[in-house]
Amino acid sequence: MLLASNRNYRLLFSASAISNLGDGISALAFPWLATLITRDPGLIALVAFATRLPWLLFAIPAGVITDRVDRKMLMMRADLFRLLLTGAVIALILSVPSFPPESDAALYILALSALAFLLGTAEVLRDNAAQTALPSVVEKAQLEKANGQIWSIEQIMGSFVGPPLAGLLIAFAVPAPFAVDALTFGLAAWMIWCIAMPPRIAPARRSLWVETVEGARWVWAHKTILQLAIMLGLFNFAAIMATTILILYSQEILGLSAAGYGLLMTAGALGGVIGGLVSPAIATRLGRRLSLFVAMGVSTVHFFMIAVTATPVVVAFALFLEMLAALLWNVVTVSYRQRLIPDDLLGRVNSIYRFFGWGTMPLGALIGGWLVAWGEPDLGRDMALRLPYVVAGAITGLMLIYGLFRLRLA
């Protein structure tokens, strides 16, 4: 069946699109809201840390849950829960004065971080279920194409449309982007409800520990999957360390407004859109292994480009390259996993993979803020804001060297 005529795939694709529009709005609105409360990089990093912490805490249990329950209902309920949480964010905004005293600012940041943590927890469940459900609605021969299309639309909506729209909405009213965010989660839940998922026989339930160990043994027996997971963790650690500081970097070095920052992020989204469309062809032409080396090399270059410039156009081009490389990595590795992992283990193995690959992100967010705070007294504010990019470039460069010698894809 062609993807265009596959109703279930179209609904899953559309739900991913609208849900990621909400994620893209949040990606700008949350850190910008934090900067309206405080200028402390440590407190701002705390919000990013809270958003990503669920990937460290709940990625593995989410995999067991995904393999046990109806994946369609899990996705729908997660989106509805995010709708309710976004309403709570709006209530918090209405109670916060602009730039409150530092003692009060810390309390508001803690409340914002708690809501971000809960939203991140729902995202862990939803994203793991969505990625696990895809092989059930498309043929295996179409996985690269389907993943490429989904990654592309997620970039279009999450980074190309969402951030600039959030910038415009913030200029209109600070709660506005979160109101639109809530609407997108409601629409995504409705689309998931409309999917006719094929019947699936859930395995007999055993203890959480037994099921987790079963998935872990499979990963341990397939060393390439484990290598890719650890390498992704290093990449995401570096990327989030830099991304957490991008909001302050854009305001203080590039001099951008909320709308300008949103437009800057669309440059990265454009790279993601193009990357999602051309990555299947690149992977076919270069092969999976060489494609991953290209992705790591481009990522390394992009970090150093940002570290040495103060020009928005150069930063925009660097973000374009970074997202193109990220999409190439994702299309190759996700399709590789979906083919290799048995369906009854797919949720658990994906969750263990994401535990290693995404669990490093909250640590990267914290260390990004700490690097700036640590470097500012000796280096000055300007150089301190560049420091995370230098460290991130060094990490991905070392990862590339490791991959050249040790990574093998069957």
Tell me what the structure shows.
This protein is mostly helical. The chain has a single domain, classed as MFS general substrate transporter like domains (Growth Hormone, Chain: A, Up-down Bundle). The protein is 86% helix and 0% strand. The protein has helices at 7-37, 41-68, 71-95, 102-137, 143-172, 176-193, 208-221, 223-252, 258-286, 288-307, 312-340, 343-358, 361-379, 381-406. The relative contact order is 0.16. The mean pLDDT is 86.
Provide a compact summary of the structure.
The protein has 410 residues and is mainly α. The protein is built from 14 helices and no strands. It has one domain: Growth Hormone, Chain: A (Up-down Bundle).
What is the strand and helix layout of this fold?
Blueprint: H1 7-37, H2 41-68, H3 71-95, H4 102-137, H5 143-172, H6 176-193, H7 208-221, H8 223-252, H9 258-286, H10 288-307, H11 312-340, H12 343-358, H13 361-379, H14 381-406
Helix pairs in contact: 1-2, 1-4, 1-5, 1-6, 2-4, 2-12, 2-13, 3-4, 3-6, 4-12, 5-9, 5-11, 7-12, 8-12, 8-13, 8-14, 9-10, 9-11, 10-11, 10-14, 13-14
Strand segment count: 0
Q: What is the rounded distance between the termini? A: 28 Å
Largest sheet: none
Number of helices: 14
Top-tier CATH class: Mainly Alpha
The CATH topology assignment is Growth Hormone, Chain: A
SSE sequence, one letter per element: HHHHHHHHHHHHHH
What would the average pLDDT be, to the nearest integer? Answer: 86
CATH homologous superfamily, by name?
A: MFS general substrate transporter like domains
Summary keywords:
single chain, 410 residues, Growth Hormone, Chain: A, 86% helix
